[in-house]
Amino acid sequence: MTSDQLEISAMTDRQMRGADCVLCGQPVRGDHVRDLGQRRDADGTRVFPRAHPECWSNEGRRP
């Protein structure tokens, strides 16, 4: 799976804002984060998903 295949509809508001990891749901820090790129959900709202680097690599995902 790549960051393009994230299920936006399953994300919480905090995950959509980039405050919580999209994989584990825990808060992320600005200096310890994998930015997954801005995207838009089905109604056009901007979403800013982020993940902990270790969560991203543990899931076998690639940049």
Shape estimate: globular
- Total domains: 1
The share of residues in helices is: 10-25%
Mean pLDDT: 87
Q: Unreliable stretches, pLDDT < 50, 5 or more residues? A: none
Q: How does the helix and strand content classify structurally?
A: alpha+beta
Strand content: 5-15%
Biggest β-sheet, characterized? Answer: 2 strands, antiparallel
Radius of gyration: 11 Å
**N-to-C terminal Cα separation, in Å?**
10 Å
Q: Element order, helices and strands?
A: HEEEEH
Tally of individual helices: 2
Q: How many beta-strand segments?
A: 4
Strand arrangement within the widest β-sheet reads 1-4
Describe the structure.
17% of the residues lie in helices and 13% in strands. The model has no long low-confidence stretch (mean pLDDT 87). The protein is globular, with a radius of gyration of 11 Å. It has 63 residues and is an alpha+beta fold. The strands form 2 sheets. Strands 1-4 form a two-stranded antiparallel sheet. A hairpin with a 5-residue loop joins strand 2 and strand 3 (46-47). The chain has one domain.
